[in-house]
Amino acid sequence: MFMKKLSLGFIIFNLLLVLMIETSQAEYRVYQYSIKMRTLYEVDIKPYLVTSTLDPVSYVSYHGGRETVSVDLLRSWTCKGHTGQRQPHCPSPYEKAKEVKNF
């Protein structure tokens, strides 16, 4: 009797686990930065925009540290899905709002 209940509980648990895996979705955060390279002679170096999935600390570390690059976080947002196989990031909700406003 105990083994039957244990087997039934195991089957139900596995079914629930499969259902949860099927309905789960991945998400990631996208960051938009204003980047300015730091050089020995800072003459007419203009900042540029970068969109990345690296958080601010990781971005600075990956690109040579604070002595090499100056990073200002402008905005961030979350996206559903994944960024594997060089898929583009999802568009910013701010860009979507501009499109609706201009429509």
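Next protein, fold it too.
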Amino acid sequence: MIEAALSVLENDKQRNELAAFYEQYKNRFFGIAYSKLHNLEEAEDAVQEAFLRVADNPNKFFNMSDQERLRFVEGIVRHVSVDKFNKNKNNAVLIEDIGDNIMSDTISPEEKYITDASARELVQFALTLPESQRQALFMYVHQNLSYSEISKILGISEELARKRVSNARKAIKNFAEGKK
């Protein structure tokens, strides 16, 4: 399934190492993708695209420990899967999955008084946020990724990842306060 990614690599040692890594964890990666997409072909495509991204920057991957590689590729698979899901459903994120998380994770306990807006309204509003903020917020809230992990997946600084999540949270808070 990752032949295209393997063909991009420069030497047999890298191809063998990436192929072995894929074989060891392919079910795990497929499970992540399928849990987001609920479609076999789309999940396979997401895993293949993730490995193409890995092969496009082999030095990064091959300079990591096994645990770092696993987290790195899992993050890429999640990111690719979320992108595919958003494109396939015109940005219709699973409202029932993230509604409660947005209510509990993006709004501090002191701000609970603003919860007059329903979780559904908040999620619908969140879908109108700029793509960069929406992606970062989704990864932070729904996937429980750290700012460091988000920065690696999106290829941005940790500070920018933190800023995107913060801006998204502020926008949601302002929206909820305006609903009062």
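About the second fold: Residues 90-100, 109-117 have pLDDT under 50 and may be disordered.
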